[in-house]
Amino acid sequence: VHPAGTVVDPTRLMPITETMVVLDARRTEEVAYVEAIAPRRGPAIVMLSDLDRPQGWKVLADLRTRLGQQVYLLPEILAERFQLHHTPSFIRTVPGHIEVREVFLEEEPA
Prior knowledge:
This protein is α/β, with parallel strands linked by helices.
């Protein structure tokens, strides 16, 4: 508890020790990209900004198996708070701030 008016750095109080990885599960190139970089990125919390809703549970199960870890749906409040407009995105804390990096991947051919 801090007195009113105290400036607090949340990245020092509660640092996120894992990178949050946000991807759109409907885009196969994003899933492949996240899968390919998994060995170098270290521990991560994988969140989906969107998925094929009719196949939702199957998609989640397949991604859990493919990525070898739990996969979550991205709460809308996080997308708004971090101003996410593109995926894949990577969110991590560094001393003094939160870093959000959106990666451009080529469009999948139609």
